[in-house]
Please model this.
Amino acid sequence: MDLKITELSFQIERHAAHRKTIEQKIADERAELEHRKEAHAELERESRKRNLDVDELDENIRGYRKRLDEGIISFKEMEDLRAKIKSDRTRIETMEDEALELMNRIELSAVEIENAEAQLRQRIAELEAQIAEIDSQRQRTQDELAELEATRTQAADEAPSYLVSQYETLRSEFSEPIVTIHHGTCAGCKLKLSGSTVERARGGLGLVACEHCNRILYVE
Model:
């Protein structure tokens, strides 16, 4: 019963670890989608900034033209304004090309995010189904463990107290305090047993212990 109790306890720990791993997968995949959404939002912010920059340059050009058309300025200042207008127009053309490319990236990103969201919903549904199955298995294991522990407690209450005490002392030292005799040796410490010890164990003459490690011996 104690070996089975240990095994069930390990199973419960494995269930908990597996559940935690799946929960982390869900968190990681959600975080990845949020990262993609943030990258998409950054593209949109960059697009708005480019549009504002183009509007600003366009406003500058209108101001330069007004000074050319209405103002009384020197020839040098006139040439400077014309050069600025030409430079700003070139910059606008470049920025408009970049803005168009940026818009294409935004549209592509939006489609990719939409697909990723659909895939994530399906993926999370699958992972949550796995979690539900793990929880079900863990509950069954916990129920079995509780029943077995109750049976063990009853068995310990019914056994002679000195035997229980001896057994518990051995169990605190060894994972398997009760072992078989295998070809005349103790299956626990692997040391050769005396003939009398083997015969007493074979004959069922009381509780027989290994003379080397004190584990309780029995013959299959």
Notes: The longest strand covers residues 178-182. The radius of gyration is 40 Å.
